[in-house]
Structure formats: structure tokens, C-alpha cells
Structures
1.
Amino acid sequence: MGSFARFGTIAVGLCLLGCGEQSGKGTGSSSTSTPASTASGAKAAEVPVSGSVDAQLTHAPEVPPPTGRTAPTKVVVNLEVKEVELPISDGVQYPFWTFGGRVPGKFIRIRQGDTVEFHLSNHPDNKMPHNIDMHAVTGPGGGATSTATAPGHTSQFTFKALASGIFVYHCATAPVGMHIANGMTGLILVEPPEGLPKVDHEYYVMQNDFYTVDKYREKGLAKFDMQKAIEERPTYVVFNGSEESLVRDPLKAKVGETVRLFVGNGGPNMVSSFHIIGEIFDKVYVEGGKLVNEQVQTTLIPAGGAVMVEFKVEVPGSYVLVDHSIFRAFNKGALGILKVDPQGDEGIAKSIYGGRGIDSVYLSDKAAPTGAVKAAADAEAKGTLTRELQIAAGKQLFAGTCSACHQNEGQGIPTVFPPLAKSDFLSAPDGKTKAIHNVVSGLSGKLTVNGAPYDSSMPPLSNLPDDDIANILTYVLNSWGNPGGVVTKAEVAAVRAAAKAPPGAPK
Ligand SMILES: [Cu+2]
């Protein structure tokens, strides 16, 4: 990273923005020889600014490289708001409002003492006015009042970054909650004057909650639900804008490397209990500030807050990022993966952990996402759905949803879980309808499958959408020596409508 020598080059004449006003309340000095170590920790108002750079912004999970600077400068930031339809789940699109074209907004990296010249553009194709409120700004509205921008226009404001830390930014156009709930949040890192300690990997993760009229994983274009948002009942809680994004493209590291995550919580409503399954945070910069906690299992991230966590990875395998408010992880999408690859001798890793590598228990139907669910949904919408597409989608969904009990090959577990393979329950004349009923309403009590008695209980899986249930059962009927056939979405809907709904089931 940069050197202290460059401090000698700060010129009073380049102190264009901010330092004029500040000189009255500070030392009044525009000294050219302030060493970085003196500036460290202090608010940066007194340090003059020299030169100008264009900020390099990145989409999540990438983070721009360290500024490498040891002196403040003017940083020009250009950010464009775009209203775009993007996937929020496999086969589900959402009309997001974005800072930079994706959710979350682009990552901005500056240094304490920098003066930021911020240009906010609102793409001409957009329908809504937008603005930006940055928590790194000291000043009324955090920039929001200065950046109210109509479609096709650009606005500008300037601020000086007084404090270091990791900060949320968001749109604050009325109705504010709706703009945030449509994805308009991101992070800005203000490095301390001495920079951050070197690590092998830095990643950007942002949690948001989304509210749709449509049920969780109901395929097609989902619509925003204002009432659910007001009642704080999210349909989706996801990392980086989609329940797929950190699953399809996991974060990566190698054994022995150090990782720093910048984790923001855009809300609008939920507070995150951020946790990585199988990992302990060596350091947590609590609430993104200067307080460092060590050896933390789960850290709270308030809505509109952010945190910086650091850890070394010692054991290869897949580590699952979750919001430990755990229904959000497994039933609303708040799940991501950090994949740690082996590197040379794993002797030490084995002495730390002797268990199995990849924990598909936690990854469930995301263990091997194939795109089959979306392919089936697309075909359904076009009226071209085939048994083969249903089987492929059902196979992906079966993993985890049903396999936890009935096992991967449908073989079951003697005396506990009946087999789905060559099941005489399924091959009976009413087998198909009863199977749909089992999934929608559950099943308990005495049961004989292939001559063996069971007296157990299967919970209702009524949270699954009709098409997912149809695809799973089509897969089951066409696998492991079962009689074949097709289960349609309409058949599942009919059974659901006739069934006495279990408590909490969507109607
Ligand atoms: Cu907005």
C-alpha cells in the first residue's frame, strides 16, 4: 500500500472543498506534514484534500481494492439508478429498483478525510424519482435532500468523510420503505487513515427483506406487497438480492487464508442474526465501528446497519452463511455459501475437524442447483411442460425437502421412514392422490408399506408451491421402480382446496 512520503505533496492550493469551513473550528492549520499515524482515530476534518480520483465501484460480492492512499483526496462517484427485473429465486423475477443495476447497490470505497463529489443519475427509462441517503455523510438528510432526481436527470452533492467505518446507503424517496424494500440499499466503506489490515479475500454481502403478493417461490413475476411490508411479514429474506446468488456462485477461499466480509443489512424491517455455520468470527467490528469483539458466533446487524467480520479458514468444505433467525434461512432464502478449497497438506485441518466435508443437510435443495426448477416453470408458463422437465425439477427439489427422511434413493430407514422406492402405497390405485394429500396435509398413525409396519408422523409440507409439489411427486412416481405417471399443478391445487388446511398453511 501507499507510503507516507506522499504526505509531503499536499498543497494548500488544492484544498478546494470542506477544509475552508473546517479551519475555523479546528487548528486552522493546513499543515503539509501531518503524519498518518496522527490522523488515525481522529475525525478527519482538519486534514486537507489534494488531487482527484474517480471511484471504482463494484457489484457484490466483489469489493474494490484498498485505496492505497495515505492522504485525503477528492473522490468522484458516479452512480446510476436503474429499475430492472431480476431473479429473486429460481424461476421468480422481481421488479427491483437498484443503485447500479443489481441488488445490492454498488460498493463504494473511500478513505477517511476524503471529499466525495457524488453524482446520482436516474436512468431515463425509470418511472420513479430517487435519491440517496448515505450513513457515512455528516449533514442533514445524509445527501437525500440534495439528490432528489427525476428520471433522465442527474444531481450532485459533496461531502467530507469525517469518520471511518462501514456504512449503509439507501434511497429515501417517499414512500421510503417501498424504495428500500425494492432493493435500494448498498454499502460505502470509509477506510481509516492507516488502511485496513491486509487479508487474502474481501467480500461484500448484503441482506434485504422482500415482500410479495405472491407466495414464496411462486413462479413468474412477483409483485410488491405494501401491506405485508407494513406488517413486517417478509416473503423473502436474501443475501445479495436473490436466494440463489451466493449459492450458485459461492464465495471462495483456500485453507489457511484470511477472509473479511463486509455485511450490510438494508432491511427495510428485519434485524439480522448473521452467522456462518461451522466458522467462528475471529474479529467483529461491532456495528461497523471501531469496537472490536473477538471469537463471536453470531453477530446482530440492525436494519440500516453493517458489520465487518474477519476470520481465518482452517478446514476445507462448504460453510453456510445464514440469518440465524432460522426460518429465514431455510424458508425465505437467507442462505449463502463460502467454499473453502484444500491447499496442500490437510493434516492440521484433520486435527481440527474429523467429520464429513460438505454438509448437504444445510444446503437442502440448494446443494446442487441445476436451473431445472426455472426451466420447468418457464415451460409451464408457455404450455410446453413435459414429464422429463418435471422429473428434472422434482429431482432437485426432492434433495433436502424429502430426502432428509426418505433418503436420496427413496430407500427410507427401516422402522422409521417408509420407502418411496417400489412403494406399494404409491402403486395402489389411489396412491397418487394420497401422496399429494400426504405432502399438503402430512400423515401420521399406523401404516404398512411393502409389508413393514410404521407408526410415525410426516409433517405437512404445505409451504411448498403447487408446481413444486407436482414436480417432486412426478419425480418420485418415475423413479426407483415406481409405476410412473404425472402429477399436475392443478391436481395439487384441487387436493389443497379440498384438504382441511393445517394451521399456518397458505390458502
Ligand atoms: Cu428510490
2.
Amino acid sequence: MKRKHHDLEVWRESMDVVTDCYRLSADFPSAERYGLSSQIRRATVSIPANIAEGAARQTTKEFIQFLYIARASLVELETHIEITRRLSFCGADTDLNERLDRLFAKLNQLHKNQTSFKPQEPVKGTRMNSVTSPVSRLSSLVANDYKVRDIKLADLGRQRIRMAEEEMPGLMSIRAQYAPQQPLKGVRLSGSLHMTKETAVLIETLVALGANVRWASCNIFSTQDDCASAIAVTGIPVFAWKGESLEEYWDCTLEMLTHEGMKGPELIVDDGGDATLLIHKGVDMENGDKWVDAPGANHEEQVIKDLLKRTRSERPGFWKTVAKDWRGVSEETTTGVHRLYQMMEAGKLLVPAINVNDSVTKSKFDNLYGCRESLADGIKRATDLMIAGKVAVVCGYGDVGKGSSHSLRGFGARVIITEIDPINALQAAMEGFEVKTIEEVLGEADIFVTTTGNKDIITYEHMQGMKNNALVCNIGHFDNEIQIDQLNEAEDVVKEEVKPQVHRYKLGNGRHIYVLAEGRLVNLGCAHGHPAFVMSNSFSNQTLAQIDLWKNKDTYEKTVYRLPKKLDEEVARLHLAQIGVKLTTLTQAQADYLGVPVEGPYKPEHYRY
Ligand SMILES: NC(=O)c1ccc[n+]([C@@H]2O[C@H](COP(=O)([O-])OP(=O)(O)OC[C@H]3O[C@@H](n4cnc5c(N)ncnc54)[C@H](O)[C@@H]3O)[C@@H](O)[C@H]2O)c1
């Protein structure tokens, strides 16, 4: 199909924006200072180059593809101008804004005019643009190095990221404070962490600090597709979409670990330890370990083994090269931290690690107050279920369990706890919860939530004892808290999809149960995870951990560290003003009486909060 020749005007307009941007770079020395000028230039060059390239093509379809790339670069340009402006606390350039808006409108109009063309659905798991001609080489670099569901969602993602930034005062002020020093300049950094809007703010912070970032999600259901696209269009390679298969998930993890020139990352942000695990298993394999050649204990383990075997034939020696340059990992969650300590105790840990989870401003906030808001949110978005009056069982009363039980109680559920630890069980009882064993409550409860980070908490046998239409879900990191495989494999069980991430099972006994997010974390699979304000605390810790790992890379040992209490207090301090908290300052006499400095830290290491 021939396209109409009405793109010249847009091309001219884009050249105007380019001129503006060059002027901006000249007037805007701060762009240079924050390391953003090259990104502004890259986006700037790519817009007219792609429009010109599109104009030279024969078919509407091809032209539209180039328009997508041009538009993506325009979003990228706008983002970098905005970041530079914020970092240098400059006012808006109204003239430039108007020109940018005009160009957006023209590109949109041009799109709309191609009525006969239906945009191609991006194919997940494949590269979406195959632009190879010299004129667009630059833009194809920007546009090709990602895998997302639908790049056209980038605008929506950008709007949501902006809203998240407003609720992330700690992370944004750390960005503003450290960006001028470029503490991660040129560092190859890979992240495996839920690709949400909050994570997008973390990613752009790490980029503003100078890092070369590649990203994947740490869960097959947790990606917010619009936010992944918003990151992809800025030229940051991201490999994530909601509803990946396990094969796709591990392929994305490998892509995220593969930097330019087949190099590995120098730093990793991990959540749950999958990136760390893959490198350790890869190195073991290259050292002659036979684990990969034995049959996998379950489907996912087999997927990991198959991937490693593939790298053995396609990239010999890759994992040892990765390990050689790798200088550290910061781990986000309880389950990943368990894995790290296990590796450390076995003397197998390849790099220094920072346990971000056990910063007070992480686990005592994200795990607790985050889940207090996001558990009920996940259940409600998935099912619209009335929670008030229902009997809910929360397995585990650690930080996540506490948040989860209060989440359900807040809606009026009658909550029962199961625990193995007498201290946590006593805490639950003192909060007014009943504490029972799961076997005692099977026929009584309407909602079951696992929060333990342990396995086989709800067994297949337990499910058969549940009452009709009971709801089962998990908010712990991995899906092995519930025996989903056994449920799926049972011959007399019929599985029916109500909608993605909501399944109704008919059991052999004729009763039904509902399972959310296929047993994976319900708050990220069925809703959008924790709110940005609490994630700002977690990700402030992540950013400080990454800066410290790089700064002290020559002195850190291959063990697991925590961030100093002083930084923990600093992270909390950064969040006070936004919610109107007025802090009291110690007098010198009071500080002397307590034996602490006026400016902190205020509590000994053993204090439990
Ligand atoms: N979904 C999220 O947003 C989110 C956020 C943070 C952490 N997590 C994950 O949630 C899980 C729990 O994290 P946490 O910080 O609360 O850990 P935690 O160690 O504080 O709490 C887990 C609790 O489960 C109890 N437990 C263990 N086995 C049990 C069993 N068989 N029956 C009953 N109770 C049992 C433990 O005694 C402990 O009190 C981890 O997998 C973590 O990675 C999820």
C-alpha cells in the first residue's frame, strides 16, 4: 500500500525542534554536568533521521514503523529535558515546550491519517523493529535493544512515572544530590526487579547517576507494560512484559545480564536472587559442576538448566567472564537475602552483597505498610470480593504477615494467623488475632493468604479440605508456598480461567476454589504492588547501596553487609517533610544524657523498632 506524501511538514517541524535542542544544550550547561547531554543529542538526531527514513520507504506500514521510532525518540527527548530541568531546578522553557507539543500533535495526526493501516501487534519475545539502514542506525540502537509488550503504551507509562516521582521524595532527592557527582559513571548495571512505575523511577535515578542500565522483571506477572515501554523509549534496555512464560522470563534475565560486547554487569540490583543464582550456577557449570545435566526437580528448574546448557554451547566461558567483572549485588527482599546468607555460609558467594531488605526503612515499611495497602488491593482488583465479615487465614506473622493481616482486618475480615515461631505467634495473639493451625481452619475460612517465604504452606491436601469457593493466594516471593503444581497436575481437577491471573478450580470432591496470580505474589500479579511512597524508602536504600558497593569495591569482601544505621535514619528523614512530620531535635544535654550524637544515629544495632 502506497502512503500519502504529507510528511515533509513534520520533518521540517522536527528540524525546528532539533535546532531548539541544540540551543538548549548550549544554554543548558547543566545537561552536560548531569551527563544527559549525549542522551539529549541522541534523541534529537534520531527524530528527523527516522522521519526522513520513513519518508523514503514505499509502504505506509514501514512509514508508520519509522514514525513510532521518531515518536519514541521524542518521548525520550522530552524525558531528558525534563530530568535536566529538574536536576538543575530550572524553570520550563515555554517556547520549547510548545514546539515539542506541536510535534507530538503532528506525529499523532500523521498516525491517525494512515487509516488503512492497523499497527502491527508487537510480538513478545522478539525484537520489534528491524531497522538496519545506515541513516537510522542510531535510532535502531535506541529502539531495538528491548523487549516489551507494546511500545505505544510509553506515553501512559511516562504519565504514571511522573505521578510516582511526586510520591518518591527520598529517591528524587538522592537523585538530585548525587547526579552531579556521577558516582556510577559508566558502570554496567543490571537489575532484576518488578518492572513497575516505582522501579522506573529507580532505573532513571541510576541512569542519572551515570550507570549503563539493563533491566528485567523478577516475576512473570509483575511488569506494568506501560512503564516498561516508557523506559524502553528512553533508550534504556528493558526486557519485561506482564505474562511472560518461564522460558521467556529466564531469557529476559539473560538479556538483562548481557551488556554490550558480551560483557556482564559490574553491579546488580536483585529481588529474590534470580540474577545472582543464574551467575552462580553458570560459573559452577563452567567449573565442571554437573547440576545442569541432571533432570530438573520442577519445570522452572529445568528451564534454568536448559538456558545454562544453551549458553554453554553458544557462549563458552561467558559466566566466568561475567563473574570476573562483577563487583557487587544489592538484594531487595527477605527470600533473596536468605539465599545470599546460605551462599555466604557455604563459602560460595562470588561478590560482596548488601542486604537492603534488613534496612529498617525497607522491611519495617515496605514489607509491613506496603502489604497493608497492596494485599487487599490485589484481592479486590482480581475478584471484587467483599472482605468484611469473611474469615481470612494469614499464614506467617512476620513483616509481610503483619501487613497482610492488618490489610484484611482493616476491611472487616475476621483474621486467623498460623505461625511456627512462638514469638511471632505471641505477637499475633497480643494484637488480638486468633492463632491456629491451618488444618484446624480449613473448612471455616473464606480467604487464605501465604506470607512465609517458606514452601508447602498450603498443600494440595489442604485445598481439598477447603469450603466451596474459598480464595487462595500468596504474597511471599515465590509460588512454592502453595502446591500449585500438584493442583494443576491432579487428574480429577478442572481448571478454568476467569480472567488472566484469576483461576477457578473444580476439585475432585465437587467443590471449587479460586487461585490468584497462579500462586505468585498477588499484590504485584493482580494489582500494582506497593504505593510509590513506601517504595521510595526501599529504593533510596537500593540506590545508596549501589553507590556504596561501587565506591568501596576494593575494600568490600565477599560477604553480606547491611547499610549503616546513619543511612537508614537519613532515608527516613528524607520522607518526613512530604507527610508533614515535624521532628524534635535533641538538646546537647539530652544527647549527652542518652549517650548519642545530636545528629544520630540514635539507636544501637540491637534495637528492634
Ligand atoms: N509481595 C511483596 O510485596 C513482598 C514484599 C516484601 C517481602 N516479600 C516476601 O514475603 C515473604 C515474607 O517476608 P517477611 O519479610 O515477612 O519474612 P519474615 O521472615 O519476617 O516472616 C515470615 C514468617 O513466616 C513464618 N513461617 C515460616 N514457616 C511457616 C509455616 N510453615 N507456617 C506458618 N508460618 C511460617 C516465620 O516464622 C516468619 O515469622 C518473603 O518471601 C519475602 O521475600 C513480599
